């Protein structure tokens, strides 16, 4: 997979180039919006990592120009952290939005999710029932069952379960969960995410022998069926 990193902070650009290359990606890096737009338009890239604040053309301007002719997946990487900035970026055509400072492992995870989504068959977007082992979630009926038993979930618990199920097998950080389910930035001084996961686990796993929702120390949570 070939990535284009458009980032004007030279040290960060070098860090991303080195780290993503070590993850197996082919990476080009450029440091201003004009060159970035030219390379994005002329090159054959699978994904762009795009800084929001760039010389020449800023990230939103570059994104708007790109979207006139290309739908290359774009992950915006920026210091702008307000909800309004995030919404503006997504509405301009970004596929995901990660705020600086960030964990490199989370960046890689988000890149892989976007690449999988881009390469998935068109029918995947129309899937309305998600499954893992004996767990089944009907998105249209807003109903979750396990081994045929209805799970009595709150709206937030249901949304949390859907997020975990859509990315089953991937470790989701508390930051990702906070942004995707609560539309907020994770505050390390609160335990809202851990409490919500604990309540969901009590309904999802406690009554059953096999456990699906697991904590990964220092990283977050993952939904997957593990061997005994």
Outline of this structure?
With 228 residues, the protein is α/β, with parallel strands linked by helices.
Number of strands: 11
Read across the widest sheet, the strand sequence of neighbours is: 2-1-3-4-5
Poorly predicted regions: none
Give the helices and strands as they follow along the chain: EHEHEHEHEHEEEEHHHEE
CA radius of gyration: 19 Å
Largest sheet: 5 strands, parallel
Strand content: 15-25%
Helix content: 25-40%
What is the typical, i.e. mean, pLDDT?
87
The rough form would be described as elongated
What is the terminal separation in angstroms? 35 Å
Number of helices: 8
Structural class: alpha/beta
Mind explaining what this structure looks like?
The radius of gyration is 19 Å and the shape is elongated. By secondary structure, the chain is of the alpha/beta class. The chain has helices at 10-22, 33-42, 59-66, 83-91, 104-119, 155-166, 174-181, 192-204; strands spanning 2-6, 26-30, 47-51, 74-78, 96-99, 129-132, 135-138, 143-146, 149-150, 213-216, 220-223. The protein is 39% helix and 20% strand. The model has no long low-confidence stretch (mean pLDDT 87). It contains eight helices and eleven strands.
């Amino acid at each position: 997979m070939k990535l284009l990193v458009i980032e004007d902070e030279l040290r960060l650009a070098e860090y991303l180039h080195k780290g993503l290359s070590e993850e197996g990606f082919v990476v080009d890096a450029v440091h201003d919006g004009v060159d970035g737009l030219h390379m994005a338009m002329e090159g054959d890239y699978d994904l762009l990592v795009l800084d929001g604040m760039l010389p020449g053309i800023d990230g939103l301007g570059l994104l708007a120009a790109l979207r006139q002719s290309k739908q290359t997946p774009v992950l915006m990487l920026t210091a702008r952290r307000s909800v309004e900035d995030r919404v503006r970026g997504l509405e301009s055509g970004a596929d995901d939005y990660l705020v600086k400072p960030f964990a490199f492992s989370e960046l890689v995870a988000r890149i892989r999710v976007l690449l999988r989504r881009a390469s998935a068959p068109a029918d995947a977007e129309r899937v309305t029932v998600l499954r893992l082992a004996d767990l089944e979630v009907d998105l249209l009926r807003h109903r979750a069952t396990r081994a045929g038993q209805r799970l009595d979930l709150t709206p937030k618990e249901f949304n949390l379960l859907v997020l975990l199920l859509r990315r089953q097998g991937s470790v989701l950080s508390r930051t990702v969960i906070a942004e995707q389910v609560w539309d907020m930035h994770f505050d390390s001084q609160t335990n809202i995410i851990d409490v919500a996961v604990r309540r969901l686990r009590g309904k999802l796993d406690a009554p059953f022998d096999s456990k699906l929702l697991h904590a990964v120390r220092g990283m977050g949570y993952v939904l997957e069926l593990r061997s005994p």
